[in-house]
Design goal:
This protein is of the alpha/beta class. Helices cover 43% and strands 15% of the residues. The longest helix has 18 residues, at 157-174. The chain is globular and about 40 Å long. Its cofactor is Mg(2+).
């Protein structure tokens, strides 16, 4: 399976690593570290050196209970960094739910649109189609991170997430989006058990025939399972969750800790696990 990212192409016959670059003062794991341009560039260079296949940048926290920022503030945070990052020679994903931000980021040259609201706003699909950029469709039960945890109620979380992603993918492709990537939205309007069930049954999402992105990196449910309170210290639990996800068909892992994942996947692949997962 290939993912065409404008002038870049990713071969998804092996798992790919999407490095997370939060340009926010309040993200749950590393808020405030990289909101200055030079710090952001240095972090991006480090992730590429460690093996990141693409970089995902965002200027608005979407953690549970997060408050929104204006489109102008989000653009101020992300656009100068995006322009600088395009010089790195790897695909850049813009993580936004605002059409105003997406429009300028894609016009600058962003390669992938990552929308946590799942392209509910048809303007997002229209923009991805206009710029011939693929889009990540993520599930959360409502399009508002501030209230999403109040809606973590499902009869069958996997079936309901699958239905949403399938419907949104069909609409996006009909609107002219060249490719879609499906993201179950780990931690977005989900309980710890919902998160685990989605990872256990990720193969049911992969069966839809689109690339699957898994983003469990440092999330609260890992801390619940391991007793690790500090998000930055949840590396080992994260790697375990992601390797299991790969065994169930994940193609892209959205990660904070690139080196740890690259090394784990190198051993994983050497043991022949990759043939089992994607064979």
């Amino acid at each position: 399976m290939l993912l065409h990212l404008r002038e870049h192409t990713l071969d998804l016959s092996r798992p790919r690593l999407m490095g997370v670059l939060n340009l926010t003062p309040d993200s749950f794991s590393d808020g405030g570290k990289y909101h200055r341009l030079e710090a952001a560039l240095e972090r991006a260079r480090q992730m590429v050196a460690e093996g990141a296949d693409l970089i995902d940048i965002g200027g608005e926290s979407t953690r549970p209970g997060a408050q929104p920022v204006s489109a102008e503030e989000e653009k101020r945070r992300v656009l100068p960094t995006l322009e600088a990052l395009l010089e790195l020679g790897v695909p850049i994903s813009i993580d936004t739910r605002k059409p105003e931000v997406a429009a300028e980021a894609l016009a600058l040259g962003a390669h992938l649109l990552n929308d946590v609201t799942g392209l509910r706003d048809e303007r997002m699909s229209a923009l991805a189609a206009r710029y011939e950029a693929p889009a990540v469709i993520m599930h959360m039960p409502v399009p508002d991170p501030a209230t999403m945890q109040q809606h973590a109620h499902y009869a069958d979380v996997v079936a309901e997430v699958r239905e949403f992603l399938q419907t949104q993918a069909r609409k996006a492709l009909e609107a002219g989006v060249p490719q879609v990537v499906l993201d179950p939205g780990i931690g977005f309007g989900k309980t710890p058990e919902h998160n685990l069930e989605l990872i256990r049954r990720l193969d049911e999402l992969a069966a839809l025939g689109h690339p699957v992105l898994l983003g469990a990196s440092r999330k609260r449910f890992i801390g619940t399972l391991t007793g690790v309170e500090v998000a930055e210290e949840r590396v080992m639990g994260t790697v375990a969750a992601h390797l299991f996800g790969v065994s169930r068909g994940a193609h892209i892992l959205r990660v904070h800790d690139v080196r740890a994942h690259r090394e784990a996947l190198a051993v994983w692949n050497a043991l022949g696990a990759q043939e089992v997962a994607h064979g």
